TrEMBL record:
NCBIfam families: HTH_metalloreg. InterPro entries: ArsR-like_HTH, HTH_ArsR_DNA-bd_dom, HTH_Metal-responsive_Reg, WH-like_DNA-bd_sf, WH_DNA-bd_sf. It comes from the Bacteria. PROSITE patterns: HTH_ARSR_2. It holds the Pfam family HTH_5. Residues 6-100 form the HTH arsR-type domain. GO terms for molecular function: cadmium ion sensor activity; DNA binding; DNA-binding transcription factor activity; lead ion binding. This is Transcriptional regulator.
Length: 111
């Protein structure tokens, strides 16, 4: 199998995904949108967050290029921006990882 050349755009895209997944609410939004597109108010209710928090997190995910807003009359619904993202999230979910809860936080001493 030939190795694909990794470019700065590849690493930037991976960093954006990592940033998105670094926040539990954003990760939950991506997983919810993996199942089906949704309106922000429905996502907020389903995830138990305020509509302001949902709006801020969706803006972040849009900025990362991971979700897109689709106008629907006076409302807007959201979906994953790329068809490759849903299976990639599924692959990530299938990984089994043992994580030390004290590791990789703001005061990480793993080194």
């Amino acid at each position: 199998m030939a190795m694909e050349t990794v470019t700065l755009s590849h690493t930037a895209a991976l960093a954006r995904l990592g940033h998105a997944l670094s926040d539990e609410t954003r990760a939950r939004i991506l997983l919810a949108l993996r199942e089906a597109p949704a309106y922000p108010s429905d996502l907020a209710d389903a995830l138990g967050v305020s509509r302001q928090v949902m709006s801020n997190q969706l803006a972040c995910l849009r900025g990362c290029g991971l979700v897109e807003a689709i106008p629907d009359g006076r409302r807007v619904w959201y979906r994953l921006a790329d068809g490759h993202l849903a299976p990639a999230l599924g692959d990530l979910l299938s990984l089994v990882v043992a994580v030390d809860p004290g590791c990789c936080g703001p005061d990480c001493t793993c080194a």
